[in-house]
Hints:
The model is unreliable at about 1-10 (pLDDT under 50). The chain is globular, with a radius of gyration of 17 Å. α1 links the parallel β1 (about 15-20) and β2. By secondary structure, the protein is of the alpha/beta class. Strands 2-1-3-4-5-6 form a six-stranded parallel sheet, with helices on both faces. The chain is about 50% helix and about 15% strand.
Amino acid sequence: MTPVPSDGPGAGLRVVLAEDAVLLREGLIGLLDRFGHRVVAAVGDAEALRAAVEEHRPDIVVTDVRMPPGQSDEGLRAAVALRERWPGLPVLVLSQYVQRSYAAELLDSGDGSAVGYLLKDRVGQVAEFLEAVAGVAAGGTVVDPEVVRLLLRRRRDPLERLTPREREVLGLMAEGRSNASICRELVVSEAAVGKHIGNILAKLDLPPAAESHRRVLAVLEFLRG
């Protein structure tokens, strides 16, 4: 376990970080600390990740997919198990490669909220990474844009019922974008975005529920199959 300061600046998030590459781990500690968060534990394997969460009960877990001892999907498995133990535990998973199955499995854990799946390259885009951390910790669902693009090329029913614009809106929803952010990206009014989202939810035959929960269900539908 990498020693970390006992107190950090600001009133940010308490983070448990799991990454076996020492340089990246130290870089993430420094980045999170710089923006007011506190890494309460930084570990290098899945067993230590479970123990750290048990000890610290963090606001969010940030973990690599592949970790010792097998360097396969130990980090992902630990993340899913942790969310079973503590439903709603915010988890942001980092991956070296686009793996739709990894994203889908993570998002299927719990009710699909407070989870994120990002490619490691996204860490270098500091603003996007920090937005993802904050969004997941607040209960949002964030999927890397590269994964979204891959899925848009592969998906079939029931998304075939959506118009090209509605599929574009759903892809941005999967990235964790708010209505206002979608508006800016597509250069349309917020009313138009709201109408598109309403059409998406209706066409996907989602059960009645709060809109925030139905948005998560729509993203899950997008990732499955």
